[in-house]
Amino acid sequence: MSLVADDVVVTYGRKGSAPALDGVGLTLGKGSIVALVGESGSGKSTLARCLVRMREPAAGRVSLDGTDLLTLRGRRLKAFRRRVQMIYQDPYESLIPRQRVRDIVAEGLAIHGVPKGERDGRVREALMAVGLTPVESFLDRRPFELSGGQRQRVAIAGSLVLEPAYLIADEPVSMLDVSVRAGVLSLFGDLRRTRELGILLITHDLATAVHVADRIVVMHRGKIVEEGPARRVTAEPAHDYTRALLAATPDLGRP
Fold first, then answer.
1. Sorting pLDDT into bands at 50, 70 and 90, what band is 177?
2. What DSSP assignment string belongs to 87-126?
3. Which are the contacts of 176, defined by CB distance < 8 A and separation ≥ 6?
4. 114, 115, 138, 234: least surrounded by Cβ within 10 Å?
5. What's the pTM value of the predicted model, to 2 decimals?
6. Residue 254 has pLDDT above 50, yes or no
7. Which pLDDT score, from 0 to 100, does residue 255 have?
8. What pLDDT sits at residue 116?
9. Do 126 and 100 meet the contact criterion of CB atoms below 8 Å apart?
10. Residue among 232, 192, 202 nearest 215 (CA)
């Protein structure tokens, strides 16, 4: 089972002359964490939008377990939305300020028609899974009553409540204090192990990638320039761009 981008092309500009993605290929399997690394403007978020079918490629194919996403319509597309969930960069903007935590996490269940009688238990289970315990102390809080790390955990719970197979996490810790980043990254590792989730971690930070990912994919100017096991890519980078990213990353624990 896998989520696959195959030779994907996305272009911008009136005549499509500026490629945001230029023949990109990537595979995300269940139970694995792949880090997609590159500077701002390299095409990482554009690829993420293609993987969740928020954007259609000009060429190439994105598939889930062999099924082309562009063939999905109606109920099949709605079922896909449950299986592949996205977590956004800024927990300060991705949560509705006036909603309580219980309603934020339950929103996806309501959209997908889960009976009301099942929602409360599913919400509580999701909050426990992301470490927001005791659950009773969080259910009726609003986002302004939470820390940045807690807000991002609520956002993650809102994705987990639908029991997805894959998470696309777009810079999920870049807006958080350094002191709480490790806890959120550790959570991704736990979810991968306990739920066999496939997680695409989008980041500009190789230090983040090497400590949590199985594989690193390096993107530059809309192309993948290097990929491989996380330790190998950071210990023996083959591409000049990867070496430049490493030079700007002081805390990889290298001798």
1. confident
2. E-S-HHHHS-TTS-HHHHHHHHHHHTT--HHHHHHHHHHH
3. 91, 148, 149, 152, 184
4. 115
5. 0.92
6. no
7. 41
8. 93
9. no
10. 232
